[in-house]
Design brief:
It contains three helices and seven strands. It has 173 residues and is mainly β. Strands 2-3-4-5-6 form a five-stranded mixed β-sheet. It is elongated, with a radius of gyration of 24 Å.
């Protein structure tokens, strides 16, 4: 895949015989690489896209199941971040002023000539939003060799710490 190209996860909007139309995609680390995302080291996500025809357009449901591989902020080792969530959208051909449907779906406008819809950007956005701000292993699961550098205090027993705030530790109000 060309480095400047983003992956294309397209679903057809015309010529479908039955509704809802369900398509499955596998999202891997290459997907994030194509977007230039460096925080996600690897991925193994099964994406199920369900497209259903409704009055004035389509309803689009995305179901995510799998894991992202991230770097732990505490020990800097790789960690798995499990995923299981869904996202709902409405695709509309009419140019309406609405931004949301009655059931809370975000409306995405379609051109009258669109024959397929690329969900790559939606998938990327949803997966990036599922990444926590701070990602760490559960307590006790971090690499103990890395943690010893975080927990060891400078100096040994009885040594005076040479910091600007060392004299404040004995100050009492």
């Amino acid at each position: 895949m060309n480095e400047t190209m983003t992956p294309e996860l397209s679903i057809p909007l015309t010529g479908l015989k039955t509704y809802p139309e369900t398509t499955q995609f596998a999202v891997s680390g290459d997907f994030f690489e194509a977007f230039g995302q460096e925080e996600v080291l690897d991925a193994a996500v099964q994406l199920t896209v369900s497209l259903d025809k409704e009055a004035g357009g389509f309803s689009l449901d995305l179901y995510f199941e799998g894991k992202l591989v991230l770097r732990c902020d505490r020990c800097l080792e790789e960690m798995d971040w499990p995923l299981s969530f869904s996202a709902r959208y409405a695709l509309r051909r009419a140019s309406e002023e609405e931004t949301e449907t009655e059931d809370g779906r975000e409306i995405i406008p379609l051109e009258p000539t669109d024959k397929c819809f690329d969900v790559s950007q939606l998938v990327y956005d949803e997966l990036c939003l599922s990444i926590p701000i701070r990602h760490t292993h559960p307590d006790g699961k971090c690499n103990p060799e890395s943690l010893k550098y975080l927990t060891d205090k400078p100096g040994g027993e009885g040594e005076v710490m040479d910091t600007p705030f060392a004299s404040l530790k004995d100050l009492k109000l």
